[in-house]
């Protein structure tokens, strides 16, 4: 899976959780909670959706690595490469 595939999948899950977000306007460094307005429950739902989509465990200490699309793509790519 390429980084652009991972980013597209991430944005798909993100916009399912927060349908008011426009995936075209989300920048790589937009913070999910500070910039895009996700609350903690939305964030947990996103983590769950990513876990289901990618089949990866995402432990709570790793949550900060999902704070922006760029960080999330990097993290998911590293985890998928294992």
Layout of secondary structure:
Layout: H1 3-17, H2 40-54, H3 69-80
Helix pairs in contact: 1-2, 1-3
Q: How is this structure best described in words?
A:
- With 82 residues, the chain is mainly alpha-helical.
- The chain has a single domain, classed as Non-ribosomal Peptide Synthetase Peptidyl Carrier Protein, Chain A.
- Helices cover 51% and strands 0% of the residues.
- The protein is built from 3 helices and no strands.
- Helix 1 crosses helix 3.
- The longest helix has 15 residues.
- The mean pLDDT is 97.
The CATH H-level superfamily is ACP-like
Give the overall pLDDT as a whole number: 97
CATH topology: Non-ribosomal Peptide Synthetase Peptidyl Carrier Protein, Chain A
Specify the CATH architecture. Answer: Orthogonal Bundle
Q: What is the alpha-carbon Rg in Å?
A: 11 Å
Question: Would you kindly provide a brief summary of this structure?
Answer:
This protein has a single domain, classed as ACP-like (Non-ribosomal Peptide Synthetase Peptidyl Carrier Protein, Chain A). The protein has three helices and no strands.
């Amino acid at each position: 899976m390429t980084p652009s595939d991972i980013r597209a999948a991430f944005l798909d899950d993100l916009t399912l959780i927060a349908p008011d977000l426009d995936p075209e306007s989300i920048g790589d460094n937009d913070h999910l909670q500070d910039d895009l307005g996700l609350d903690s429950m939305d964030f947990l739902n996103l983590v769950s959706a990513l876990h289901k989509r990618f089949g990866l465990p995402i432990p709570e200490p790793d949550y900060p690595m999902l704070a922006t699309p760029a960080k999330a793509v990097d993290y998911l790519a590293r985890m998928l490469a294992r």
